[in-house]
Each structure stands twice: as structure tokens, then as C-alpha cells.
Design brief:
459 residues; mainly beta; six-stranded mixed beta barrel; five-stranded mixed sheet; 6 helices; disordered N terminus
Amino acid sequence: MIMHALSLVGLGLLASTIECTGEVPKRFSVPARRQKEGLRRRDGNEATATEHVVVDFAFGGQLIPMSIDSGSSFTLVASTLDINKQEIEVLPALFNPNTSSTYHDENDPSDAYDCSGNSATCVMGVDDVATAGLTATGMSFGVASHVENGVFASGQAGSIGFGRQSGDPTTWMPRDQTFWLNTGANLDLPYLFAIDLYENKNGTFDFGFIDTNRYTGDITYGSMDTSMTNWNFNFTAFNIGTGTSQTVDTFTGIVDTGGPNIGLPSYIVNPYFDSIGGSPSSGNSHTFPCSAYPPPDLTLNLQDGGQLVLNGSFLAYPPDQYSSGETCYGRLDDSEQTAYNLGASFFDQKFVIFDHANARVGFADKRQDGQPQGVQATSTTLSSTGTAMTVASTGSASATQTPSGTGSLTSPTSSPSASTTSTGPTSATTSSGAIQARGVWNPSEMFIFYLLASVLYYI
């Protein structure tokens, strides 16, 4: 009887643990849309089309469409503090700090300054920020008190930073404590998020897991230099099409959802377009005869092994876009910088993984036929409080995770080899194919469960 009672107690404790795990899912998915057609503005007109990646976030329970910027760690949201009605009436939503019970100023409201070079002024505020069941409690961000025309011109009402600063995150300024940093500690794969975007349709933003259905082939990883800002990795050589590999001085690429194209050194871009009869045009772009479309692939060799093969059809606009019928335009820019942006034309062709815990960025070829069967885009919506995620008409899941403080956030000093195959967990799906945010039993929980079940059986 004593053993029976102890077994029941053990099973009860395990059940409560599992139930708690179910209440706090460790992996999340949320739709991400490329603003090709834009959202409705508050004045009822259509917003301008752009390349921005937009995800809905709740600030203090108020739903705001935000562009995702992995090239910045700063978050700025348009607000009712801006008295220039002409500028803000075109925005789809405004954050009202006066109606949020969880909001407070981080500093003196009169201490306004230029917000990360965004042609805007703001005050720093603190509030809960949420999406898809994840909540960053007490996150610092800029509340815009003035924005210039055009700062948010594509159906978004703010920009949320998903970048990173250099060094140990515990030393970062409060304004650089990003959403992914605040919510990443308790995910299945801590401090990891993945982006699956498409040029002409919605994609998905995943937190805490790698969905093996979203890509084909192997994932190639590039090691980050954590002494630098941004999600970076180095290249040492390139080749055009099936041509010979050419070694070059090491240069750094950064993965930036806020950029439209791919920018590379002139000693790569110029010979690339020369190979198809192209020539420089205004700015840093190139034109070429449409008869040469699609242009050849471009391969970049990573410093620590592996290759990034850029599909030529994504490095130029097709003849039916922005062309005169004879002259086509490239999406590969010549830009002499200390680091080079991999922007929208990179995300259009690659499934991309941001892995802070292992100091690396991963990428793989995505399935060009769109979302595979059984992994359809989620129907995620936020509740009025911004903490619930509706995953399908057959069910829903909600959870709140609070920031873990500093946790084990020291910058990693090593990373796995550059090229590896991911066999990570896939997401759960409902019968309708919608992804569910959910908790999972880990192996130790399963072992304890079956052990106790066996004890009860023999008792």
C-alpha cells in the first residue's frame, strides 16, 4: 500500500509537471507577411508596397503591425504622442501608452532623441510585448513622439529589432534587450528563431525549433564573430556559375530582414554582371539584357567551410518586372562597406536560422513549391491582451513566458562545423494542418512516466 501510494504521488507530480509544460509551450510559430500590397491605412487608403517583413505584436495589449529588422536591436513604435496628425493618420495603428495599465516611462518624457537614425524622435518606454504566445515582460522600446513622412510607409506602424549587439548580452543597454533575448531562455532550442519567407506570399516566423519540413537538403552554418554587432559570418571566395573559384580578401556578410537586396563587394558584383553583358546603372545597381535572364548562380565560400549558393533567378528582377522589355534590373548591389547586407533577395530563396546560443547563422534551400503539405501557414491571432495564440478552429494554445534575466547568456566561444544536416523537431499540426505552439515531453519525463506506470502495474 505504501509503495502504491508513493507511486500515485509520483505520477501526480509528473502529471502536474507535464500539465505545466503544456501550459508554457516551448516552441512557437507566427505568420510573417511580406508587404507586397500593404495594409489598409487608418485613413482607409492602401499602403505603399514594400519589401518589409511584417508581424503583428501586442504592446500593452494593443495590436500593432511591426516590421522585423534583424539588422537592428532597437524597437520603435508609432504612438498617439505624435501630434502631427498628417503624418500619423496614414498608419494602420498607433500605440497609446495612456491606455496601457502595464506601461511606464523609462526616463523623463522630455528626454527625446533621434531614434536609431530613423528620422524620428521618441521617449523610452517599458511595457509587455507579445506575439504568438510569447511575452517579453517589461521590455524597453522607443515610443515615437515624432516621425517623418515615409518612415513607416508600408503598412507597418513600427519596427521591432531582432538584431544583436557585440559581446556579452548581459552588458547590452536596456533598449538593446530585444524580444528574442527576453523570451529565448526557456524555448526548446534556446535563443533560436527561424524565418521562412516568400517573395509573393506569407511566410512563417518560428521560435525555439527548426521545422525540417520547411527546407530541403542540408543546413549550412556560418560561425558568428560575437565581438561584432549583427548576425554575421565571413566569406573568403566566390565563383560565378560553373566558373573557377576565386579567392578574395575575407569580407563579412550580415543577415538583414530590413534590406531589399544583397550587397556585395564590387570585385564580385562587377564581374558577375559583366558575364551577362550588364553595366552599372544609377546608385549601386546594374542593368543587363533581358535575353540573359535568368543570370547564373553565384557561390560564396564561407571562411569556416561550406558554401552559400545564391540562385541567379533571385539576383535579378524577371523581364515582366521593372523592365523595358529589353533591359532588366539586378537585385545584387555593388556597395563598398565593412559588412555586406543579405536582404530580401536572400530570404526569398533561403530558410534562415538565427542561433545565438551556438553563435551561428544557418541557411538551407527552401521548398520553392511553397509550404509543404501539413505545414500550412498558421492562422495566428492575438487576443485583446496579446498573450493568446489561436492555431486552428479546432483548438488554441496560450502561454506567457517572462524574461529570464541574464540567465546563461554569455557569448558562446565556439560553434559547430559550418555544414551540418538538421534533424531538429518539427511542429505539431492539427488535422487542418495548422501549426500549434505546444509543450513537449522530454526524454527524462517519458522515462519517469513509464517507470512509474510499470511500478503501478506490478503493484
